[in-house]
């Protein structure tokens, strides 16, 4: 006779898409292991990982498909986004072309994926620019149960020009201007008009990484999704396209979630 209501647990299939080298695997590595690797290898096919995220009233178990960004793997993508409840579409804020590729992925998802799929657009590598508020904070952590609340007031905060009054050194200013190719406002406006969640993040520093997944978990319309048990992979045979769950994983040995994610 416990006083506490048992917490519901739900599985969420999530797919990461985006141009090669934008940092998809690095974001997953950060989320699942709290780690970063400067020298990753390109993903071949796709990698599969899981990580749990605890919300107030439920535990979300993300089943994450980290796809390969190289064009030769594009045709495999539908196998991974089919039946997905969530997608993280990543671009690199220092590469304008990668936003165009991200937009193409969004279009494809909106045409071919689940009608109510939650899509987050993520501009990665904000640590490379000095015009964001990302550098000094949140060194390597992603959100845990305890610090979940931090995320509330910590969403898109990398407004360009936000720091103007602090008179940055010319060198810093130039570096920032030279490197950033996608203004925050431009991507944010696109995300808004397309109905996407939007974040700028850094897999390297961990900035906003946990927040991406927490916001997705909060946004998924669970009440309209038939609940699935959180036990193993029943009911979704998509993974049979790549039935070695650790197939081509280049995220180290993190086939299953270790510490470092939501919970
Ligand atoms: N500075 C910086 N570098 C990053 C960040 N995220 C990833 N990188 C680097 O970018 C390169 C590519 O990262 P990956 O995570 O392998 O990129 P990917 O999108 O998974 O690439 P594919 O698997 O080929 O699609 C690696 O050298 C990473 O170390 C980041 O947030 N900041
Ligand atoms: Mg990869």
Automatic annotation (TrEMBL):
Transmembrane segments: none annotated. Keywords: Nucleotide-binding. Gene3D superfamilies: P-loop containing nucleotide triphosphate hydrolases (3.40.50.300). It comes from the Eukaryota. InterPro entries: P-loop_NTPase, Small_GTP-bd, Small_GTPase. Residues 146-166 have a biased composition (Acidic residues). Residues 130-179, 223-263 are annotated as: Disordered. Coiled coil: none annotated. The keyword NAD does not apply. It holds the Pfam family Ras. Residues 230-250 have a biased composition (Low complexity). The keyword Acetylation does not apply. GO terms for molecular function: GTP binding; GTPase activity. This is Rab family protein. The lineage of its organism: Eukaryota, Fungi, Dikarya, Basidiomycota, Agaricomycotina.
